[in-house]
């Protein structure tokens, strides 16, 4: 452990952590876990959004090339992708509505739109599930860090009162360790804030693309409904 | 938690451990901690302190102008006198003894003189003086007179103050001021050195208002404390009065100018 510097003169996080008292330590550990989870969400969300976008691109091109909707449905509806589920929901609703003898066209159109809209909303909800955690971290982590800092500085001042000395050597380590709490708070909050803004935008775009696809599919089904009649 | 979140967690964990590991091995350590250390104060240790003055060493009068007229041969130093030959002079007078027999009074001094001469010779030989005693006493009083010695020394006789007394006096002054000295504290406050000058009466009380005559070590960071240090220095000197100092050296502490600094 010799190569890990733990004295106050270095900016070693371990040194600062070991000098802090238990409240500041708890704040530091909490913020560190928050930062870890934030980055987990950022990375996994990045993977998921990119895979969803790729899937939408591929699905749309295949859909345009497909001649028969039923044949395409057999081939593609089982995929574990939001756009496939939206497509499957539309086809399912279509089959249910057209299986009877009398076909209510207006009712079928409404049901198709509702079914696909509900599926889109569900998929977007699933996708954006973790984003609220990013928002919470972005707004709360600086305050938690600030709490640790205030606590540590209070402790430094009581140290001054106890030692009857206001020299920098008495105060400085406590303030450094206290400020480290705010530093970790910002360290967790800044990526969370940036990622939240970017991923909210990404989710909105995915939702818009799903809506466009659903509208196009709805138009196709609606046309077929008139042809079949 | 699904597969992508597992991958994300792994990558995030590795990243955090790497970042804090790099920080912990002193990657961001203060580049030169030596610059942050305060420069030490120069201290002169005076090991000899005394409150009593030692008399100045006077130079003696000039040596006698005249030496013995006869120069004795320089005796070899390599031959120290043996104690054995000493009895010989005692033995010599023995043949003379029969001669003054009729006068017994004269006999007594006769044997005494030779032994006396012998011890007188012995230390003379032992010393490295080039001139041997000749037994003649003329010239012995040359250079000795009744007038007081004419000293070439410029040292004033008697109780003036030497460096040791000055050191002891300033130490005594500082010792009496220290309990009343409350220096301001803050950044760089240890660099402030405030000189307070005040005139004292013979009973040690203040003869005038103390004044700050010099203040050194003022930097940008302790400029706020400089005036506070001046006020407190004057206050400390006022509180310390009357000073208890040896009255025989009043000339040395008629005006005192102690230098006050943080770690007095």
Description:
The complex is a heterodimer of chains A (229) and B (264). Chain A has helices at residues 13-19, 22-65, 69-76, 82-98, 105-127, 131-163, 168-228. With 229 residues, chain A is mainly α. Chain A has one domain (20-59, 68-228). Chain A is rod-shaped, with a radius of gyration of 28 Å. Chain A starts with 12 loop residues before the first helix and ends with a helix. Chain B has 264 residues and is of the alpha+beta class. Chain B has a domain at 163-261: Fusion Protein Consisting Of Minor Coat Protein, Glycine Rich Linker, Tola, And A His Tag, Chain: A, Domain 2, CATH 3.30.1150. In chain B, strands 1, 2, 3 and 4 form a four-stranded antiparallel beta sheet that branches. The radius of gyration of chain B is 40 Å and the shape is elongated. The two termini of chain B are 66 Å apart. Mean pLDDT of chain B is 71; it is low at 106-127. The interface between A and B is medium-sized, with 29 and 25 residues.
Write the layout of secondary structure elements.
The complex is a heterodimer of chains A (229) and B (264).
Chain A lengths: L12 H7 L2 H44 L3 H8 L5 H17 L6 H23 L3 H33 L4 H61 L1
Chain B lengths: L2 H22 L62 H5 L1 H4 L7 H4 L1 H18 L36 H15 L15 E7 L11 E6 L6 H18 L14 E2 L2 E3 L3
Antiparallel strand pairs in B: 1-2, 1-3, 1-4
């Amino acid at each position: 452990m010799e190569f890990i510097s733990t004295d106050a003169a270095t900016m070693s996080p371990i040194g600062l952590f070991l000098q802090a008292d238990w409240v500041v330590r708890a704040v530091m550990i909490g913020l560190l876990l928050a930062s870890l989870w934030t980055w987990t969400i950022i990375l996994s969300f990045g993977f998921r959004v990119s895979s969803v976008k790729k899937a939408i691109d591929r699905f749309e091109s295949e859909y345009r090339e497909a001649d028969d909707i039923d044949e395409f449905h057999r081939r593609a509806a089982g995929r574990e992708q939001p756009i496939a589920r939206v497509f499957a929901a539309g086809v399912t609703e279509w089959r249910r509505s057209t299986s009877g003898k009398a076909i209510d066209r207006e009712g079928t159109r409404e049901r198709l739109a509702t079914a696909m809209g509900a599926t889109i909303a569900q998929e977007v909800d699933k996708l954006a599930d973790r984003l609220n955690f990013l928002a919470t971290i972005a707004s709360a982590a600086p305050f938690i860090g600030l709490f640790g800092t205030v606590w540590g500085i209070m402790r430094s001042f009581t140290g001054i009162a106890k030692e009857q000395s206001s020299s920098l050597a008495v105060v400085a380590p406590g303030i450094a360790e206290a400020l480290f709490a705010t530093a970790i708070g910002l360290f967790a909050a800044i990526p969370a804030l940036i990622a939240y803004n970017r991923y909210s935008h990404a989710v909105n775009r995915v939702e818009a693309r799903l809506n466009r696809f659903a509208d196009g599919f709805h138009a196709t089904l609606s046309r077929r409904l008139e042809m079949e009649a | 938690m699904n597969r992508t979140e597992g991958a994300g967690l792994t990558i995030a964990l590795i990243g955090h451990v790497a970042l804090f590991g790099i920080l912990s091995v002193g990657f961001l350590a203060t580049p030169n901690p030596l610059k942050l250390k305060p420069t030490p104060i120069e201290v002169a240790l005076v090991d000899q302190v005394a409150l009593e003055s030692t008399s100045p060493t006077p130079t003696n009068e000039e040596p006698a102008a005249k030496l013995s007229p006869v120069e004795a041969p320089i005796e070899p130093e390599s031959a120290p006198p043996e104690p054995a030959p000493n009895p010989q002079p005692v033995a010599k007078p023995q043949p003379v003894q029969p001669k003054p027999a009729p006068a017994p009074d004269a006999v007594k001094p006769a044997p005494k003189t030779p032994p006396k001469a012998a011890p007188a010779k012995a230390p003379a030989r032992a010393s490295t003086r080039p001139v041997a005693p000749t037994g003649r006493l003329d010239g012995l009083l040359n250079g000795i007179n009744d007038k007081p010695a004419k000293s070439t020394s410029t040292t004033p006789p008697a109780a003036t103050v030497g460096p040791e007394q000055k050191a002891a006096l300033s130490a005594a002054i500082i010792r009496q001021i220290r309990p009343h000295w409350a220096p301001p504290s803050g950044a760089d406050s240890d660099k402030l050195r405030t000189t307070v000058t005040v005139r004292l009466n013979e009973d040690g009380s203040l003869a005038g208002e103390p004044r700050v005559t010099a203040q050194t070590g003022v930097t940008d960071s302790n400029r706020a404390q400089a005036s506070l240090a001046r006020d407190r220095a004057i206050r400390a000197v006022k509180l310390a009065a009357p000073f208890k100092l040896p009255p025989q050296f009043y000339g040395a502490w008629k005006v005192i100018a102690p230098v006050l600094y943080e770690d007095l």
